[in-house]
Amino acid sequence: MYQVGNLVKELSEKHGRARESLMPILQGIVEKHNYLTDEAMVEVARELDISAAEVYGTASFYTFLDTKVRGKYVIRVCKTITCSMKGKGEIIQTIEDMLKIKVGETTSDKMFSLIETNCIGWCHKAPAILINELPYTELTPEKTVEIIKGYMQKK
Amino acid sequence: MENKGLTKVDLIFEKVDPQEVLTKAFKMTNDNIIKDILDSGLKGRGGAGFPTGLKWKYTAAEKEPDKYIVCNADEGEPGTFKDREILDQVSYKVYGGMAIAGKAIGAKNGIVYLRGEYRFLLPKLMKELESFHKLIDEIGYDFKIRYCLGSGAYICGEESALFESIQGDRGEPRNKPPYPTKSGLFGKPTSINNVETLVTAMMIVKHGPAAYNILGTKDSRGSKVFSVSGDTPTPGIFELELGMTVQQFVNEFGDGDTKAVQVGGASGFCVPRKKFQNTIIGFEGVPTGGSMKLFNSSRSMYNVLHNYLDFFAEESCGQCTPCRVGCQQLLKGVEMVKKGEMKSTYLNELVKLAETMKVASKCGLGQSVGNAFRTIVENFREEIIY
Amino acid sequence: MINLIINDQQVSVDEGTTVLAAAKKLNINIPTLCNHPDLCVAGNCRVCSVEMKGARTLIAACAMPVSEGMEIHTNTLKVRNARKHIVELLLSEHRADCTKCYKNQNCELQQLANEFAFGDHVFLDLTIDKKYNIDRSSPSFIKDDSKCIRCQRCVRTCAELQFVSAIGVANKGAHQKISSFHDRPMSHVVCTNCGQCVNRCPTGALTEKTYIDQVWDAIYDTDKHVVVQTAPAVRVALGEDLGYDPGERVTGKMVTALRQLGFDSVLDTDFSADLTIMEEGTELLTRLKKALVDGDKNTAIPMFTSCSPGWIKFIEHKYPEFLPNLSTCKSPQQMFGALAKTYYAQKRKIDPSKIVSVSIMPCTAKKYEADRPEMRSSGFKDIDFVLTTREFAVMIKQAGIDFRNLEPSSCDSLMGDSTGAAVIFGATGGVMEAALRTAYEIVTGREVPFNNLNITPVRGMEGVKEATIKIEGCTPDWKFLEGAELKVAIAHGLVNANKIMRLVREGKAPYHFVEIMACPGGCIGGGGQPIPTNMEIRQKRIDAIYSEDEHMVLRKSHENPEVIAIYKEFLGKPNSHVSHELLHTHYVERDKY
Q1: I need a labelling partner for C311 at 20 to 30 A (CA). Which of B255, C73, C149, C408 fits?
Q2: Are residue A39 and residue A82 in the same domain, yes or no?
Q3: Is there a domain that residue A84 lies in?
Q4: Using a CB cutoff of 8 Å and minimum separation of 24, what contacts does B10-13 make?
Q5: Looking at the domain B223-296, which fold is it?
Q6: Mean of the pLDDT values across residues C162-174?
Q7: CA pair distance C279, C301, nearest whole angstrom
Q8: Would you call C280 a catalytic residue per the annotation?
């Protein structure tokens, strides 16, 4: 959980308070915190003067606007056909073993979440993943371990 | 069957001087720009293939003063990654195409809708946009571009769903008519074009329509950027003239054991080896936004089909019955047939369902699910059943 | 005019007409599901798919505007195949337990299945893999997601007609569903319980919470004395669920039926409606005096009516700063409830703990209202059970009553007398009209200056109505109102309530008194009324209400002899201490979102 504080107000100042400001505002919150709490969504509803159910309905439509708790680093492994063919299963296994979580789960220290996602546009360098917004491609289990270790060492 | 063979082309990534091309376009009349695009025979490069010149012509004809150019950079079709490369390498040409389109139709505002998965490109793209704005200001264009980001929804690649997303709503496709050229973004006349289409348009202004028109076939003029992946020794993007057969394509990109090529991604057509020779890659044969996936004999076409159906069941916006429920029925149906819990003849019922989805779904997603389903089931029936 | 051909027949219609409407002009019925006359076009169910010459796909008749020379076919093989598939697809994600379902025989999906999908079904049952949620948290209605076919009528109703948006569409693909804010129970969100969504749901996904069994138990419990009140809007709509056309008044038979069902005393909400007018009229005049004569800045003007519990919950959530503007009067239902276990019990010498108070309402929000913790002025729960008009019809059928052939009869006494002023509570503008009929006479000693007491400026289906009544020739007590122009407004449907509240909030509302009904048309369009609903049906019910009023002997609340009696013998006078204890209430500030 995080405190949404002034973030919604700041984002509204930047993007406005019209309905079309909703996506950039929600994206701004997710950029900072990786998911949307109920509190955050209600704040957005208040700021834009639209119903909370509307905010939730719109947010829940978009895969990257998570309303479930996510960790600091969200690892999205592509599961579409080419990445599937080129070894995404092994990559997932590697990450699951390293982080001790299954697909869909978040580590207890809230650092990592592991999710499957659909084609991210790196089919010629499969298997590929996104960690937050950064893509990592042509993965092998060894490469994956290095990458995750790198994130674990970040402060 | 017009067969042009496999020829590499260098148009999209060709380095040009944007000032030169944009100044040339600025001096042209709007009608002449549109005429050039019409004469070139350019059709939309995102997959739908609507004649670009006509789209600009219709939008230009609208009296409403507020108009939009939207660049559809929501590339989400499985197997397509060419727009990412285009944006990464030659974004100034995308912007150039938008400015030219804006002039042609009378729009002062351009929006690039960039899929969320490409958000990492944004800092670079914004920097180049800044330079671009300076450049066109100097030339005299009254045109501004801004970015809107997607957040992980394949359906937002559909034009009206994309507008809904920009407007802050769920990406649910609209009823048509009215069409975007009349009532698009915020209800205003809008021309929405693919990344590659806009770059191509700029190149047509530079080189003239004839140079483009001589490439390709009667129904598929010009060249296209293909995204090649799967069982191939040379995955990547390649710019090729339209009008080659699938066989010629496989000869160049296959690994010697190609049993099927999925042309057009999950919403495209599966061409089996026996049809390689007689199938043209183009609007008269199998149309495509560029996604080309090669499968060799080690691949299970059941897995391929299942992967695509799973994709659609997840990515469907869910509003209309044939698509929302149809995708689930197709997915569960092939699983049951594979497990032996349903007779193999059930596939025939599913093919009929796919036909219903094709004629009754509200948008192109639901209408296209049946393409992959029908072609894989027709040509690889045993792999589905056993 | 646009000329087109449907099923080889020519038809001419205005530009902008849909293919669906054009076909209707030729008496060709194209089946629909997500389409509803009160709501904007959706075009998502695809049931109305028809063939259009030259088109690559079928087109949705409800969403396609006509064009010159269009050729449509509504029943070709292609259309029939698609239609059968579509209905089957809907059935495959619908948990069909028709024989147990409350909407059995009044379900649009059943009807479509009957017309287009009888015979073997091909597709797999998708419901077995899904984890459906059935939300029973609200005392007013049940939301059963396993029966939802995602036509989105409820979402459009809550957004367009009611401006509440307590529910919306969430997720996408196979997980798409109709959801409250983050799937919270409906009792924990801004839902007003108005039940307009229930009225428009084509299946059993949204139904009222029924209390029929509990009422039967009470009736057959020899230890209990069960009293029943029925709202005015019930008597002009009950017939629709018993084979009558909309707009038929069945008051007399209704009373007889209630007796035959076994209620110990058949009384009338209209009695307490007249009482409400006395209390609220006095309250309004008191406020006007405080504000205009005494210059009391704290007296809140305009005053809003408070008999619509859907409206009450709406203002509690969305405009809590204006709670002081609400009349403190309870609704007629609740006034009745408080008096049934005090006044009535004393007069009839019945132990109030043995009294079960039942009300029959056109409303689902009244079930919530009865459950509000402050509604216990009698020392007991003032209203024990609230039944909708629909539930009432079910009980009549269960009892085997041959309704058509009943002899009409009248209510029992003590709390059973009514006037025309009470009856018109059921229509939008009715409370205002009833209040004016009494208030004007109190102030001037004369009847309202309208032909036959029919104050037509406050009647009608416009969303927001305004009227100005000049007050002249006041009696000495009311001299301060001489020459005053009483400005009133009436709104029905919460989207219109919101329009008025916006004006009030901006300080631009010049009104003194405002009547607000949560439901389109007023109570006659309530969430508990027979289904289906549309403008024509609601208009017919309204016509019946005014017809009922015209045929009554007494047409002003202050002339109701039982009302005169209760003040004389029990309450003293309007707004007395006893009145405040039993007949007035307070409100609660709630979350805005």
Answers
A1: C149
A2: no
A3: yes
A4: B10/B239, B11/B200, B11/B203, B11/B212, B11/B223, B11/B239, B12/B86, B12/B90, B12/B93, B12/B196, B12/B199, B12/B200, B12/B203, B12/B225, B12/B239, B13/B86, B13/B89, B13/B90, B13/B239
A5: Ubiquitin-like (UB roll) (3.10.20)
A6: 97
A7: 17
A8: yes
Region of A76 (left: φ > 0; alpha: ψ -120 to 50; beta: rest) is beta
Residues A36 and A106 occupy one common structural domain: no
Q: Please choose, from the candidates B236, B283, B292, B288, the residue with its C-alpha nearest in 3D space to the C-alpha of residue B260.
A: B292
Residue C222, pLDDT score: 96
- Which of B81, B88, B308 should we substitute to test contact with A (largest number of A Cβ atoms within 10 Å)? B81
Per the CB < 8 A criterion, the answer to whether B87 and B9 are in contact is no
C466 has catalytic annotation: no
Measure the CA–CA gap between B296 and B231, rounded to whole angstroms: 6
**Residue B377 tokens, joined:** 């089931």
| Mean pLDDT for chain C overall | 96
Q: What is the CATH number of domain B301-379?
A: 1.20.1440.230
The question of whether C307 is a catalytic residue gets the answer: yes
Angstroms from A145 CA to nearest CA on chain C: 33
C319 and C458 inside one domain: yes
- Size of chain C in residues: 593
The whole-angstrom distance between C169's CA and the closest CA on chain A is 5
Q: What percentage of residues in chain B have a pLDDT greater than 90?
A: 95
Same domain, C255 and C303: no
Among the partner residues B326, B353, B359, nearest to C78 by beta-carbon distance: B359
What is the CATH number that goes with domain B18-213?
Answer: 3.40.50.11540
A57/C166 touch (CB, cutoff 8 Å), yes or no: no
Residue tagged active-site, from C108, C279, C316, C369:
C369
Whether A68 maps to a domain, the answer reads no
**Collapsed DSSP state (helix, strand, coil) of residue B113:** strand
Q: State the ipTM, two decimals.
A: 0.97
Q: What is the spatial order of strands in the sheet that C206-208 belongs to?
A: C134-135, C141-144, C206-208
Catalytic residue among C140, C180, C272, C327: C327
Element (H, E) at C22: helix C19-25
Output the domain CATH number for residue A136. 3.40.30.10
Q: Is the pLDDT of residue B1 over 80?
A: no
Please give the structure tokens belonging to residue B283: 């609007």
Residue A112's domain comprises: 73-153
CA C337 to chain centre: 20
pTM of the complete model: 0.96
In angstroms, rounded to a whole number, what is the distance separating the alpha carbons of residues C14 and C12?
A: 7
Query: Does C78 qualify as catalytic in the annotation?
Result: no
Q: What is the CATH number of the domain that holds C141?
A: 3.30.70.20
